[in-house]
Design brief:
The chain contains 5 helices and 5 strands, in the order E-E-H-H-E-H-H-E-E-H. The protein has one domain: Arc Repressor Mutant, subunit A. With 111 residues, the chain is an alpha+beta fold. Helix 2 crosses helix 5. The termini are far apart. It is 54% helix and 18% strand.
Amino acid sequence: MNMPSYIVDERGKLKLKKEIYSQQVLIHLEALSRLNRILSDLNKLKILYLLSLGEINVTHIVNEIRASQSLISHHLATLRKEKIVTSKKISKVVYYSLSPLGKTIIEKYVS
């Protein structure tokens, strides 16, 4: 018989009876949730696809996607934070490329 893993306390709030998620499971679920948010955004997917073709700068991405530079920069910052893209600065121009994780994502979900 399956017993619920929660109880209702004296104030009527749900309370866990025991820890049902290990720290490792929670970390994995959070990472999966963040990836899902990235994959559900069309502009982020377009950026990933462009980067799968090679290293490019923001101006090129803006011209191809036809979105504002601030939006593209915001998306790139998110993708960098999640370690899906990498960047390098040459003179005053920043070039972006897929990280190994980004390449795996493209292979699994976009190709």
